[in-house]
Amino acid sequence: MIPKPKDDPAAPDAFPAAPEAPSALETPTNPIESPKETTESLQMPEELAFYAPNYICLTVFAVIFFPPLGLAAAYFSSKTTEANQNQDWEQAYINSGWTGWLDVFAIVIGLVIIYVYALHM
């Protein structure tokens, strides 16, 4: 075997020194262990400003005045809240729009039914 020079950078087979092993602080004690979930909200205050409204108060009135549309609005309101928590802003705003329109229609239809009922009694 031919001896290779260690410090000669012009030698074709000269390799840089291997990096050091990571310190004890960088290596996990148990690599199988997954990172622990925190119960804190991981959302920044700026992200909370993007929350789409879920119209929960309107939804309650919509369920009282006209339950068929009110319950559909309650479903979309819960989907809005879920999408907000998952930071799916586009879906949150779509569901929020559906919630708002269903709430308005349910309340208007309920008020019309009450008005017609009151006139004919």
As a whole number of angstroms, the C-alpha radius of gyration is 31 Å
Total strand count, please?
A: 0
Number of helical elements: 4
How many strands, what sense, and barrel or not for the largest sheet? none
Average pLDDT level: 80
Structure report:
α2 packs antiparallel against α3 (67-85), α2 runs parallel beside α4 and α3 packs antiparallel against α4 (89-119). It is rod-shaped, with a radius of gyration of 31 Å. By secondary structure, it is mostly helical. It contains four helices and no strands. The mean pLDDT is 80.
SSE layout and pairings?
Elements: H1 45-48, H2 56-65, H3 67-85, H4 89-119
Helix pairs in contact: 2-3, 2-4, 3-4
For this entry, give a set of tags.
single chain, 121 residues
In short:
The protein contains four helices and no strands.
